[in-house]
Design goal:
By secondary structure, the chain is α+β, with helices and mostly antiparallel strands. 22% of the residues lie in helices and 38% in strands. It is built from four helices and nine strands; from the N terminus they run ααβαβββββββαβ. It has helices at residues 2-16, 34-38, 52-60, 151-163; strands at 40-49, 61-70, 76-85, 88-100, 105-110, 113-121, 127-132, 139-144, 171-173. Strands 1-2-3-4-5-6-7-8 form an eight-stranded antiparallel barrel. The longest helix is centred in the first third of the chain and has 15 residues, at 2-16. It is globular.
């Protein structure tokens, strides 16, 4: 009886000290409906990297908004971004994203040079969690349709970061306090582009 009582009382304590189980990063399998869901405006919320060149860039970025629009081929997207690096807003309208349906990856190309290769991780439809796969260092980013995310979505992202072994020093967040004015054009009359 005493042993049962000790086991019963000790079990919750033992369970509380179990390490958190890590859910695997499940990539989205691309199909014909995937790409239209990516089109439009996104806000970069947070990123984590253990790759030294990315760390320096992430430290400098205080705001980023970007958009995908249809490219000149069905497997290509135009990629436009506005970034505040330190105190300067930079607009880039020249890069492309190649879409590879066969292995469900996206490749960002700027000036004919591969910038990154990513897999889209399953999550909420209004979130964009990207796992960068063309480098030997873990790298994960979170973007959303709005400039902020719910506490639950941020906790989900932080759980992924913890499971990948990121430290707090390797995680960087943007802020709308540092926002750049978002451009409007006649070609982009989408009300989301504000």
């Amino acid at each position: 009886m005493l042993a049962t009582l000790i086991l019963f009382l000790g079990l919750p304590l033992a369970l509380a000290t179990e390490p958190q189980s890590c859910a695997p990063l499940i990539p989205v399998t691309f199909d014909n409906s995937t790409i239209p869901q990516l089109l439009g405006q996104w806000f970069y919320i947070a990123g984590a990297s253990s790759y030294p060149p990315h760390l320096a860039e992430l430290r400098a970025v205080t705001f980023e908004a970007f958009s995908f629009s249809p490219g000149s081929h069905e497997d290509e997207l135009n990629f436009n971004e506005i970034i505040r690096m330190n105190e300067t807003c930079v607009v880039r309208n020249s890069s492309k994203v190649q879409v590879f349906l066969q292995n469900s990856t996206l490749m960002h190309v700027d000036d004919n040079e591969v910038v990154s290769m990513v897999r889209l991780i399953q999550s909420d439809k209004d979130l964009l969690i990207l796992n960068h796969i063309n480098i030997d260092f873990p790298n994960l980013s979170l973007s959303a349709r709005t400039p902020s995310v719910s506490k639950e979505h941020m906790e989900e992202f932080k759980a992924h970061l913890q499971c990948l072994g990121f430290t707090e020093e390797e995680v960087f967040y943007t802020s709308t306090e540092h926002a750049c004015p978002l451009p409007r054009s006649e070609d982009n009359a989408d009300p989301q582009l504000g």
